[in-house]
Amino acid sequence: MVQHGTTPPPGTPRRRTANTVAAVVLLAVLGLCVALAVVFDDKGSSSSDSKGGGKSGSWQTGDCGGPDPKAAPDGYRALDCSDSAATFKALEVTSAGILPGSIQCPAGTDVMIRVSVSYGSSGKDKNKGGGIPTHTVCGRNLSGDHPGDAGAGGGQLVKGDCVSSTAQEVACASAGSGAVKVLDLVKEKEQCPSGTTEPMELTLSIGRPYDVICGGSV
Q1: Is the dihedral of CA 28, 29, 33, 34 positive or negative?
Q2: Distance between CA atoms of 162 and 171, rounded to whole angstroms?
Q3: Is pTM, for the whole model, over 0.70?
């Protein structure tokens, strides 16, 4: 007899009885209900807790936002673009990006905000680290400070940026010896464009859209 919590002996197939099939169907139905509840809750509450300034509904491209005093220091809330507290505008609203580095925002993105839903605190979105990720907001600062611009040394790595000999992003204007300019970001070094003098093969990172930095002269 196979005891509860143990693994059946190898080569012993599990037989599906009528009760087992019924249980599987019931679990599938319950799973569907939970999935629908998640979708409904995400659409219905993504802004009620964190979108001050009169905004409502899910994040959309073109929305503005700023720091959320109730979720300092890394929380954000959506705001009307005319609100004095707004600090960025959404260039794009994309998928959740559970894995680090798996989301590639548009060029010029200064800040990436992961929006998530938390069921432990009234089921409302928290635009910070906790909860279940629902989507990512790619934001550009409303001020003249744009660290995400190519070569500026901030944001995520894009074509036109500069990196040190250890593949760390640096500002091109102050790049030291050994730094190279990013000509492209590809999966295989054979895909690098002409002019590449320093193809940097990176360690494996699940979800990252590139594995090689095609480096050329700064």
Answers
A1: negative
A2: 6
A3: no
- Rounded-to-integer distance, Cα 149 and Cα 124, Å: 33
One-letter amino acid for residue 113 of the chain: I
Beta-carbon contacts of 198 under 8 Å, excluding residues fewer than 6 positions away, are 180, 215, 216
Per-residue pLDDT tens for 148-164? 999 999 999 999 999 99
Query: Measuring CA to CA, which residue among 157, 160, 186 is closest to residue 199?
Result: 186
